[in-house]
Amino acid sequence: MNRRFIVAGAFFGLTAVLLGAFGAHGLKESLSESSLASFETGIRFQMYHSFLLLILGVLKLNSSKTHNWLFYLICLGVVLFSGSIYLLSTADITGIELGKFALVTPVGGSLLIIAWSILLLSFIKLKKK
Question: How many structural domains comprise the chain?
């Protein structure tokens, strides 16, 4: 088992549940339907990738270098993608304006796409038994 993957997966899962509950109960009256839907998209992607980190924490890939890349790409991708969605969708109530940083979301998404691509290539390269 890889402790850092499991810890990161559990952390992202925990915070996704907390943010989901906060969104459903604390933000429902404050956000528009489209902003709330965006917020929920951030939560959904964060939760998907928390599961991925947990799975990768128990898998042994061929290369530890690949494992390291996956860890950093997924964690940074989640923070940039979901984090920017949270900030963008709550901008009206937080006063945080991210207009200049709107590209953070696609950068985070691109990092997640790269991580999934690396994972796919790793699985393709697995030796047949």
Answer: 1
Domain assignment present for residue 84? The answer is yes
5 in Cβ contact with 57 (< 8 Å): yes
Distances from the Cα of 108 to the Cα of 7, 100, 126, angstroms: 20, 15, 27
Identify whether 129 is part of a domain: no
HSE of 86, CA atoms in CB hemisphere, 13 A: 19
Token pair 């304006």 is found at 97
| DSSP 8-state class, residue 25 | I
Domain that holds residue 42: 3-124
Q: Is residue 20 part of a domain?
A: yes
Summarised one tens digit per residue, pLDDT across range 63-105 is 788 999 999 999 999 999 999 999 999 888 888 777 767 789 9
Please report where in the chains the tokens 């604390």 appear, as a residue: 26
Closest CA to 77 of 37, 36, 34, 118: 118
pTM of the model: 0.91
Nearest to 113 by CA among 83, 73, 82, 56: 73
